[in-house]
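hey so i finaly got around to running the thing on Hexosyltransferase from Amazona collaria. pasting the sequence first so u can double check i didnt mess up the copy paste, my clipboard has been acting weird all day
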Amino acid sequence: MRVRLKGDAICTLFLLVALCSLLYSQLEHLVPVGNKELTQKKPSVTSKTFSDSRAPWRPMPAEAKEPRLQVTPVLRRREVANKRVQTTTPSPLSDSAFNFKGYLLNKDNRNFNLLINQPKKCRRTPGGPFLLIAIKSVVEDFDRREIVRKTWGREGLVNGEQIQRVFLLGTPKNRTALVTWETLIHQESQTYRDILLWDFMDTFFNLTLKEIHFLNWAAEFCQNVKFIFKGDADVFVNVENIIDFLERHDPTEDLFVGDIIYNARPIRVQKSKYYIPETMYGLSIYPAYAGGGGFLLSSHTMRKLSRACKEVELFPIDDVFLGMCLQRINLKPILHEGFKTFGIVKPSAAPHLQTFDPCFYKDLMVVHSLKVAEIWLMWNLLHSPHLSCTQKKQVKKPFQWKKKAQTTMQASPLR
Ligand SMILES: *[C@@H]1O[C@H](CO)[C@@H](O)[C@H](O)[C@H]1NC(C)=O
Ligand SMILES: *[C@@H]1O[C@H](CO)[C@@H](O)[C@H](O)[C@H]1NC(C)=O
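ok and heres what it spat out for the 3d tokens, dont ask me to read them lol
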């Protein structure tokens, strides 16, 4: 009897020890798994589409700790996660994941100083420039600015019209080499007189600030401009076609033309770079907006938008924000086939042609997502005196202007 009792006790004790060590190993195992996942996710989730999107998207703190959900109830886990984010110094993870709460809290902080101005930009020619080209760039992208200056962004006369150019910059996000960048940008500004630099951090979600500040700048320092092209530095722009199009419009009337996106729905998937929670935008559809790669507006519309945007609450996606400003002044943006701000979809756009065929670019106004070398090559091929586009006749349906099809076909200098 005593022997059996002793045996049972030993057995129970052994089982208890085994259970405890099993639990312990499980607990120890769970924590590193969560951490490992975080560190592994970082390099793989990066943004690709936008040149200015220097902020790689990382999972939000709550979703990143998914593995531990099985151990503690959901509510407590969220509390723990939140506390950790608040008490510890901001880790690279919580730092770069978009903080909607912080954004909403700081939304009224929307006036930043202009650190580098070009007050005489639009005063060099008597009647003011015909077209002001405004290009979003980041300080670090010196090579992109150089190629734009040497190709489609050239200042001076094009087809008899005066063109001026500015680059729109914020302060670099990476503060490590700030002094070097500062020196560069001041030097660059002195050399080219085309830099506008504002005192906000140049991040993807601050592009809306860039939009507002540029419109205000144009309304103050460039009232005499006739038209404005605003776009990215990684686009190819056929300035001749744009001038040809604009010459048939009145700068004192409303004009807003681009690659217009209608009925876009806010993305409610947290992992997406464009995720917008319902607390930030409750409606199910965005107003019509132009793809940020490039669009045109008249001087008149610029002034109206500059005023209207002041009354619209900040929204982290700049294209959509501008759509909200347009909606406020009740202006319908016009879709134009010549704007390919999402790049060229080969089969439908030009089934017979290579996208690298200059004759194809001849008919377009803006093409997005090009490499520096491609922009340079395309511009040089298009301006070569030897260019002859016999292939064009193969295209079944030739390019047409959306609205004024007849007049354009006759007036076009292309053929
Ligand atoms: C910041 O800039 C420094 C110097 O140019 C560079 O070594 C570093 O990798 C950059 N950091 C990030 C996060 O890009
Ligand atoms: C925008 O810029 C401001 C000022 O530099 C900065 O405090 C803020 O964190 C930036 N916001 C985002 C979303 O990057």
